[in-house]
Write a structure and sequence with these properties.
single chain, alpha+beta, five-stranded mixed sheet, 3 helices, globular
Length: 153
């Protein structure tokens, strides 16, 4: 099984990467050495995290912990955001708020791997994620601070 290194994806010195994707239809079992969030903006399919299978529909957010095994398949035309980050994104006081993300993603600690947002929130989430993606790409003054601020809020 392949383990992807976060450094190969991160395009700035800020340990955060947001990409909009429309493929693949199938991603084989793999893992990352960082936290991965996957937000499905259009389409449907399935996602498996640590062997548990979930149906994917627009509005679903998947929280995939560091080294969790996962795979997914989607129908033709699927659209999603892939968000990756590691704990160095957070200052010590921020880390206290987000610490649960860096623990196991099992049911024992209360962190569920799947969250579903209603249709009314879908466009709002898409706009925020797309704005973060653009900030990371634009390289203008204070773009990293703006990207982190949008992500944390």
């Amino acid at each position: 099984m392949r383990t992807y290194d976060f450094r190969d994806f991160c395009r700035t010195e800020l340990p955060l990467d947001v990409r909009f994707k429309q493929e693949p239809l199938y991603q084989q079992v793999h893992r990352h050495n960082c936290i991965e969030l996957m937000y499905l903006s259009y389409g449907m399919g399935w996602c498996s995290i640590n062997g548990l299978h979930y149906p994917m529909m627009a509005g679903d957010l998947y929280v995939i912990g560091s080294l969790d095994t996962h795979e997914f398949a989607g129908q033709r035309g699927i659209k999603y955001f892939n968000i990756m980050f590691d704990k160095t994104l957070f200052k010590a006081e921020e880390l206290k708020l987000y610490q649960v993300l860096f623990e196991d993603t099992d049911l024992q600690n209360g962190l569920q791997p799947k969250y579903t947002f209603g249709a009314g929130m879908n466009q709002t989430i898409i706009r925020i994620l797309d704005k973060i993606r653009r900030e990371l790409d634009n390289r203008q003054d204070f773009h990293l601070l703006q990207a982190k601020s949008l992500f944390l809020n």
